[in-house]
Amino acid sequence: MARMLGVTALVEMLKLYGIRAFFFMSGGPTSIFSEMSAKAPKIRQVLTHSEKGAAYMADGYSRASYKPGLCFGQVGPGAANLAAGLAEPFLASSPVIALTGMRQAEVLNRNAYQELEQIKCFDPVTKWNVAVGRASRIPDMVRTAFRIATSGRPRPVQLSLPVDVISSEADYDEFVCAEEFTRIPPVRIHPDPTLVSEAFDLLRESERPVLIAGGGVIASQAWEAVQTLAEKLSVPVATTLSGKGSIAENHPLAIGVPGRYSRKSATAIVQQADLVLYVGCKVGSISSSGWTILAKGVKIVQIDIDPTQIGWNYPVNLGIAGDAKVTLEGITRSSKGKRTGAAKRKKWVDFVKSTVKAWREEAAKLSSSDAIPISVHRVVKDLRASLKNDDVVVADTGYAAAWSGALFDVLEPGRTYYRSAGSLGWGFPGSIGVKLAAPNKRVVCFTGDGGFGYHLTELETARRHDLPVVTLVINNGTLAFERHDFVYFLGGKGYEAADYLDTNFAKISEAFGCYGRRVERPNEINDAVKEALNSGKPAVVDIVTDPNEIGPVTDYEKYVPRTV
Length: 564
Prior knowledge:
Layout: E1 2-5, H1 6-16, E2 21-24, H2 31-39, E3 44-47, H3 51-65, E4 69-73, H4 77-92, E5 96-102, E6 128-131, H5 138-150, E7 157-162, H6 163-166, E8 169-172, H7 193-205, E9 209-213, H8 215-220, H9 223-233, E10 237-239, E11 254-256, H10 264-271, E12 275-279, H11 285-288, E13 299-304, E14 318-321, H12 324-334, H13 346-367, H14 376-386, E15 392-395, H15 399-407, E16 417-419, H16 427-437, E17 443-448, H17 449-454, H18 458-464, E18 470-475, H19 480-489, H20 505-511, E19 515-519, H21 525-534, E20 539-544
Parallel strand pairs: 2-3, 2-4, 4-5, 5-7, 6-7, 9-10, 9-12, 10-11, 12-13, 13-14, 15-16, 15-17, 17-18, 18-20, 19-20
Antiparallel strand pairs: 1-8
């Protein structure tokens, strides 16, 4: 047994749980930072320019490392800012652990400086949200935080640390780490074998099946299991935006991304399926085009680690609660020595291949554009040509997710594509977290001028920590979704609520001591991306694009017919 300060116990537990990066906006209680510097020098302390940026970086780090990310916000407004940042990892099912400072008990409810009822801020964006009441409880509450954050559907947790608690002494037994909860998945939940056999039977009987792989496939690292099942049973594979990487998108059975942000061909294929196998997919509005994508009478099999999600949006013929990798492997094993029904699906697979081929031919016409302002179709094509297969792309939400999700091919299975689940501005700080977790990977952030503007001050953070993330800014001088809403739904009124002045983000990047280049002609894109990647610095490639160009979304099909 040893006697020590609560803050020392906190740092010892974080060391034991393998924390290697800590993202924060500095503030009270500052003893956490000094204690970490003294007792845990291997934990990299990343001072950011906002608590929200810290949360986003911790999220990117968590997704890339398959470990919990750690972030901090000071008492009151700092905690509220951090809570806003946790909305993204909550939506993205990412195990971020948030720590916050908190006023000591003797001054609560006395109008102390910056005092807020901060605990309530975290209720909508966490799985577990508590204040530590006694220094002696710090070890067990840290263990609980890691266990809850990583278990089942991963999501953030929050621990508030009152100043008097972490500055108090307590007697501690030997610190214990539950090692399995230092990663995701911590344990692989095995499904009911009877249900697995039933899933195989339904697939075998179907003539036009489609597997739709969601973010749960990526979290489970189940991409090999997806491809094996698809090839064994001749099942075409679509992915959600979060599921990109579940299969190489140049694989003969790969369809692409269906739904609202989508390839038109992928949606058309899913609409003709007679059975859809959802794997690790919440079946939200984006992937389902507002729950309109499935044909009437289609059979549905849904596999999810969270049983509450099964049948949430569509009644299912069969639901299986279990880890994606283990369950898919079980379905494939069920086929051993049996007829798989693959032969009768030849016509279906041929149709899928021809539909995908036709889409690629149409997409190639658009991506060869020499138009000025530059077409984003051309930007995505040249970005893909400039990158290696294992380079990483981190996309913001909105049009950035639609353009990259639909048009950028992930050419080998695995997690090399990340996207914001709904928080505009996540892309750049998220990419810094990804780069810190994967220092040997080349990381490119794909965002717009609206998204980049949220956290561009983190260029200094990236430079200070020598994290050479390359950011492509699709600079069309507007919030394009809002602008197009005004054009097509509101009679062209309201542009002042969408349009920005022209801003040269390359010059801003240079002012931070980073690389910057503005691109105004399509034949400059390749060279600019390669220069940025080779600069050895955080870099911004500011690409001037057409504000009137509509992305690969379903929103405006009534007014402007889609070709891709």
